[in-house]
Amino acid sequence: MTDRRNCNRFREVNIFVYILVAMFGTASWLAVNGLWVELPIMVPHLPEGWKLPSYLTVITQLANIGPVMLTFWFLCCKYSIPEKTLVYVILVVGAAACLLLVFFWKNTSYVLGTNHSLALLVLQFFLASVDCTSSVLFLPFMSMFKTQYMSGLYIGEGLSGLIPSLVALGQGVGKMTCQNISVLDTTTNISHNEIQPEYQDPSFPVEHFFYSLFGMVVMSGLAFTLLNYLPYCKRQHVKVKEEPSDEDFINSFNLNSDFCRNYTTFSDTVHNPSMVNGSSQTLLPNNKKVRTIDIYSGSVSQPAPQQTEIRRRTYVYLIILIGWINALGNGVLPSIQTYSCLPYGANAYHLSATLSSIANPVACFGVFLVPVSSSLVIGILVLLGTSLAAFIMLMAVQSPTPLLYESVAGPVIMVMSWILLVLLMTFSKVSIATLFRREGRKALFWCGVVTQVGSTIGALVMYILVNETDIFQSAPDCP
């Protein structure tokens, strides 16, 4: 029975279009993720040293001005914004910033009497603005495709972190050896030996890495163009045909013309669409019903009564979960990964970072194979993920001597905890976004807004805890 359902899902999805959706999704956080994984090679050449990550964190949060402005635009224009044009704008800005980094990432300027990597910081702002804004643009765009394609977008978002990591891995980022070095104490003029990390030279320069990011953003833009204008891809756009003889629909449509105007996609021309066995069912304002056309067979379906109060409660509940998931996944946990993993060794850290990056797109594809629409099940998955996050947080607080840090089981438990955490949280996040896809374009927009709000709150809280308190203590690279 399960195999039959999976076969049906594959039949409903065009593999080529699904791949294009994933390629388009890679632009979501590609540039910022790429800059972060390249830091170990860049830092020795820049005046900020290892203070640079804290600068980048603040700049990334300032870049949220992009989604804030877009949200006001969205509200003032009554949910009518030129999404396609804006997506092209941010893709062009992102590609240009990546290309400019090739030539200017090393440039420094004096600001208030101190030497700073001004060009890098300014370009980082544009990159972060692009990536932050993508959260509230890419999701509404997906309302023009079938629900099954939502997981493809999130697979691309997962690849936006995995691909730069693999490129950096091939470059040799993080490869080091521990050397016994003689260090002179300037106060006593006495030398003593210390074990310090010595990083190996990369296999190719930073400039080539930024060229690769530029190329991937360009490919994402090409995928977006094909999704919009290639006739083969346009067949996967979901549309609805209104019945002019249905008086209730016409009256409701006229009353809500501001919301429906200028949109031809299925999810834009209805208020609360949901998919049941491939047919669309719609509940319009004031609980008025409309018959719609089955997008697969073309047959007319009659919607069943729906309870808007329960739906509203579920909607708020899922919105809260989305904010919580992204606060943990994009704000809290990335800030403490080194504190939780490095006490167990450099291998444990690199394995947790790499395998959790792989787990992200795997979980997204899992939603495609085994979709979950129960808010109770999603809540249980989030609770399990939160429990793992609490365990990881506890180990980070205990750094540099957490539980089992001298045991063989310690690194295994920590790596598995990170993998399971990413699997659970990503699966839950994509499942919620899929449910919002059924609710329409407006719900997807607010899903993107709350995603960014949660990420920002989590990042700001952790920035204060990490930089302004002594709660977290780093483990040495060479024990």
UniProtKB/TrEMBL annotation:
Keywords of this entry: Cell membrane, Membrane, Transmembrane, Transmembrane helix, Transport
Gene Ontology cellular-component terms listed: plasma membrane
Residue ranges crossing the lipid bilayer per the database entry: 12-32, 52-74, 86-105, 117-141, 153-174, 209-230, 315-336, 348-369, 376-396, 408-432, 444-466
Cell compartment(s), UniProt: Cell membrane
Function in brief: Plasma membrane transporter mediating the uptake by cells of the water soluble vitamin B2/riboflavin that plays a key role in biochemical oxidation-reduction reactions of the carbohydrate, lipid, and amino acid metabolism.
Lineage summary: Eukaryota, Metazoa, Spiralia, Lophotrochozoa, Mollusca
Keyword Manganese: no
InterPro entries tied to this protein: Riboflavin_transptr
Membrane topology: Multi-pass membrane protein
Catalytically driven reaction(s): riboflavin(in) = riboflavin(out)
This protein's record includes keyword ATP-binding: no
Top-level lineage group: Eukaryota
Entry protein name: Riboflavin transporter
Source organism (scientific name): Mizuhopecten yessoensis
